[in-house]
Amino acid sequence: MAAAGKAAAFHLPPLPTVGEIIKLFRLRAQKELSQNFLLDLRLTDKIVRQAGKLKNAYVCEVGPGPGGITRSILNAGVQQLLLVEKDTRFIPGLQMLSEAAPGKVRIVHGDILTYKMEKAFPNHLKKNWEDEPPNIHIIGNLPFSVSTPLIIKWLENVSKRDGPFTYGRTQMTLTFQKEVAERLTANTGGKQRSRLSIMSQHLCTVESCFVIPGQAFVPKPDVDVAVVHFTPLVQPKIQQPFELVEKVVQSVFQFRRKYCCRGVEILFPERERLKKTEQLMMAADVDPTLRPVQLTMSHFRNLCNTYRKMCDEDPNLFAYNYREELRQKKRKRSPESTDQLEETVEENPL
């Protein structure tokens, strides 16, 4: 029996299982949307536990689908749960959960990539950036097709302290394809070290929590899935605008198998490329013969800070686009010489 004066823990009333909901509403995972359902409530409970203490918390669940994780979030005793679901087929099942938890659930039919999260929660929850994180959490089993663009968008929001981070250092607990999770958490020198590693780790503490085997999902994907927890840092490790950091990091990893100076070169127009690259590498104190995966966060900080100074001295520099210069050259050349002009770019910016 609950102690006097204490509210009893919230538990959902008896409901159809997630599998029964799928059958009831004739739901099928759509391959083109890279949808995979997680039906094992022990696993959904485990995902939700990675978010931390959720009792009386405000939570946004991204893409709840048939509502497996939704049930686990509600059973954790949250104050309010916002569900953002793009696929209308799932709305009736989610409304059933909403009715089972009166006053706790708000359903939004919309795309999380465009949904304005800065107005999603009450203003009284806002914390100063230097304070502890607000009592707000983002949780989601993300479709593979949206996971990378979404985390890049949210990392930009972290950098600018807007969107869901208007409220402070909002924490996120999200699923990713295992390979993407390895990129997010890769250390210096690791084979999965990438643009995604630098962009996430310079803005957040990034923790890989556990791996869910693909066979736990319906339908079974060809890969395993990992749960990753993000807590925004009070101070970013690279204190430059998001767009500048992304441009430098993406350029460096454009040629990940070559020396890092090769990627740095494409930050500059051809006419001054070698001179400016040498100037940048020397001022940043970065060995030009290191591979991109060998560069530490300090290396990237120095590269970004030095590049910023060069952009301040030359206001047109940041607008320079390597690919656009290639396109312009192709237009001026005959079709016969186009093949000689094209350089092989290693398309692995993430």
Question: What topology does this entry show?
Answer:
Blueprint: H1 18-24, E1 37-38, H2 41-49, E2 58-62, H3 68-75, E3 80-85, H4 91-100, E4 105-109, E5 136-140, H5 144-160, E6 171-177, H6 178-185, H7 195-201, E7 204-212, E8 217-218, E9 225-232, H8 242-252, H9 260-265, H10 273-284, H11 297-313, H12 322-332, H13 335-341
Helix pairs in contact: 2-3, 6-7, 8-11, 10-11
Account of the protein in words:
The chain has 350 residues and is an alpha/beta fold. Helices cover 37% and strands 14% of the residues. The chain contains 13 helices and nine strands. The chain has helices at 18-24, 41-49, 68-75, 91-100, 144-160, 178-185, 195-201, 242-252, 260-265, 273-284, 297-313, 322-332, 335-341; strands spanning 37-38, 58-62, 80-85, 105-109, 136-140, 171-177, 204-212, 217-218, 225-232. The strands form two sheets. It has a seven-stranded mixed sheet with strand order 4-3-2-5-6-9-7, with helices on both faces. Strands 1-8 form a two-stranded antiparallel ribbon. Strand 3, helix 4 (91-100) and strand 4 form a beta-alpha-beta unit. Helix 6 (178-185) packs across helix 7 (195-201) and helix 8 (242-252) packs across helix 11. It is elongated, with a radius of gyration of 23 Å. The termini are far apart. 39% of the residues are buried. Residues 1-8 and 337-349 have low confidence and may be disordered. It holds the Pfam family RrnaAD. It is an enzyme of class 2 (transferase). One of its GO terms (cellular component) is mitochondrial matrix. Its EC number is 2.1.1.-. Its main location: mitochondrion.
